[in-house]
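W.,

You were right to be curious about this one. When I first looked at the sequence I had no strong expectations either way, so I just let the prediction run and decided to look at it fresh. Below is the sequence, 303 residues in total, followed by the output.
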Amino acid sequence: MSDARTALFQWIADRYPTPAIARGGAPRALWKTLFYLVGPQAPFAMRTSDYRLWVDPKKRKDIARTILHRGQYEPIETEIMRRFLNPGMTMIDIGANIGHYAMVAARVIGAAGKVVAFEPEPENFAALAANLQLNDLVRATAENLALGAAPGELTLYRDDANRGGHSLARANVQRAGEGTRVRVTTLDAYAAEKLAGRRVGFIKIDVQGAEAQVIAGAAGVLARDRPTILMEFWPHGIRGMGGDPMALVVDLLAMGYALQVIERDAPGHLRALPDLAALQRIDLSHPQAYANLVFTALPQAGS
């Protein structure tokens, strides 16, 4: 009976207009009602406007469940990323989770492009790899690695309250679960070994406090390729990893980057921050407060 219910919901999911779910209202309510009434018991493939993904009805607190209920994920941030992507570009997704940003980017950059998605947590990585395979995204590569300041191994702490909250710092996890040893490399080392001849054009970073370490290990790529960076900026988490949040931003500004913050009410959802003081005026004092920042390379002298 459970297989029949899953098959029935898969039939519905193949036909239901998910763009209507994303707009909310009655279609979203009907979709959620169908999900709970039919009660699929096994993973099924849902389609969105950009890709298909596996949804496991037994898993909660994960990105796939958010997409199931809303038909989309972080639509403003996703649209801003699209603005900076071009056909043929190389995009790096650091902290890829189940692959939302990687899958959207792979569609935009086309057959000549390249996406590399890094996800160290084993369960999330399995979902990422399965989703890339489901969409036949041969130009996207999933790597079961963390990126940091130096190669080696570290302990990744699972967050049992949030499948997107796993962190290399135990202090950053809401409800700590099992710690897992994960392999770590730097973006510079990876690019030298596996991206020779390709210019990195866009980097998305969401690593639950390890952003400063990722940037330190990517200094060569940033200096050479000048990619646009979309980064979650979580001061409490950065401090939990032993970093200084403002020093991280200062370092990127010193590398010749301009800073913008994503805001729902700003024109085009982006507001320029001319200096560090402008960022400091944003209230990020609460431990869970964060901002999504965009760093774009300024023209270099002589270019």
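Here's what jumped out at me. The chain is about 40% helix and 25% strand. And, maybe more interesting for your project: The mean pLDDT is 94.

Coffee later to discuss?

I.
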